[in-house]
Fold this protein.
Amino acid sequence: MIPPTDPRLTAYALGEMSEEERQAFEAELMQSDDAQRTVAELSSAATWLKSELAKEPSPKLEPAHREAIERAAKSPEAKSGATAPPRVAPVVPLRPSFARRAAYALAPLAVAAAALGVYVITSDKARRSEQAAISHADGEAAPVASARAMAENSRYGVPGPAATATARTYATGAVDALDMPQMMYDQAGRASPKEPGDAQPMASASSPSSVRALAARPAPAPPPENPFVETTKDTKSTFSIDVDTASYSLVRRLLDSGQLPNPNLVRIEEMVNYFTYSYPEPNDEAFGVYTDATAAPWASGHRLVRVGLKGRTIQMDKRPASNLVFLIDASGSMDSPDKIELVKKGFEMLVEQLDERDSVSIVVYAGAAGLVLPPTRGNEKKTILAALDKLKAGGSTNGGQGIQLAYETAKKAFVAGGSNRVILASDGDYNVGVTNHADLVKLIEEKAKSGVFLTVLGFGLGNLKDATMEQLADKGNGSYAYIDSLAEARKVLVDQAAGTLNTIAKDVKIQISFDPKTVQSFRLIGYENRVLAHRDFEDDTKDAGEIGAGHTVTALYEIVPKEAVSGSVHLADIALRYKQPDGATSRLVSSSVVDTGGAFADASTDFRFAASVAGFGMLLRKSPNKGGLTYAKVVGFAGDATGDDPDGHRRELVKLVSKASLLVE
């Protein structure tokens, strides 16, 4: 455990360590999420501030100023030291927006000083001046940053009401960084809009400008929530599975930074599926199908149905050979510690999992695409890591050209019966070559027919193109994850490496037929952009989602029964179709849903936790179907359902709900 007072954090962030010291410290850093976040904040703020200072014009002395200084220097008083030279008016005024943004960037550095026992005392007069400088010309409330959130950005510190009040009075005197658990952006705790004229952020996601840019960015409204469907009109629900998890990571990062997420970033199925559930290991099929039902905790009389899938587990040493192409966005928009540097660290972790059966190629793209590393055996780690280490970001972004070259490289090294995959790491900000959203998606659809799968990893916040990244993964027979820390990189690329690399079933579709005798109406919670036409269920030419080895997928339905459930009641029949990874014809799996009328409190820990996550998503989306749900209730439901939580992910969710409750009006 690295304490926040450890001076090595600042030394590492500012590049003041020797190579030997850096390597030794990184080994410790890998074990501490909080320390990783602190380093990212410090490094990002220092880099951004340096770039901003470089933009300031060099001061120039006007003739009048020069004459005044020379006269003062030659005066008898100056020569005798009796008086100081007269004060001269400022030569070059500071750009108004810079003063405010510099205050943001300096917060982590000030916190580092506080963590080492240095305290900043600000007088009431100075404080008023600072607040005036930070406030926006159009009357925007001055953002107030929590020192701890800026320094540690801890996922696990949950502020209470007193902490909120403290966070709102940052920079009001002697500040102890470790007493500041939450970051707020205005006096009422609301998310502030992006400032006009902000430069493209170089800082990490917790930099206020980049966080607010994403949280408040004008964006299309989220797809309308799936409505209740009366069984007198339609008894079927058809959709594609989804193993993406990016939405939860994005929501977490925004909340950790004191911002409520835009509803368009909240995809409930991705939040639910971020977590692993204890479904039994399947027997003969590629995956097992499991169902149960309980009371809906937010609507009296309604029932909740859970449909769970569990992919067959494959141990890393038993997996097939992998042909991997790392497709890395090395454009200028990736030039920040939470982007290109985190990309390199994440891929380094993945390389350590590979062996002589595997091959790795590296394609980078900026204004043009290039092959940095031809197919290289996975046990030649020094060669692969050296190629990664040399990568630098800069230039425009020709994503289309990079995609073309990556798939061509994957095809040349194609492994029959193995895992052939392009892993795209980017913020999705494509600005040259094929830049049209629809054209990029069409390009990926064409390449997916080659038998090469796609994994999309999103990085950064300020200009992250979340919708683009999600669609590319969807059309590329793959999944989309958002990487906001070394810990998340480890989760996706190490802990879940077998599932990330190995697809065990593709084009997985589910069709549920509800019993009109027992069900009055139903609605699918989430999966709005995965809904399929009923006729597409048996059409093997229609694309659908993939499931990787060991992955779990959960779907929830809210049911309005025709009458109170008593005893065992048949609610629905389930049909599921999937193809083998290299197959063209689907297989059919069937199951059913029986409700025994149990209370929510008697449901399994996994079921109650999944329902809590869904409820959290509904609150963030301001769902009209949230019923009597509140943040406090979700905290209670989820807190009682953390169960066996070795990685702390479920406890983290509970604390994120508490943070969100402090940011709502």
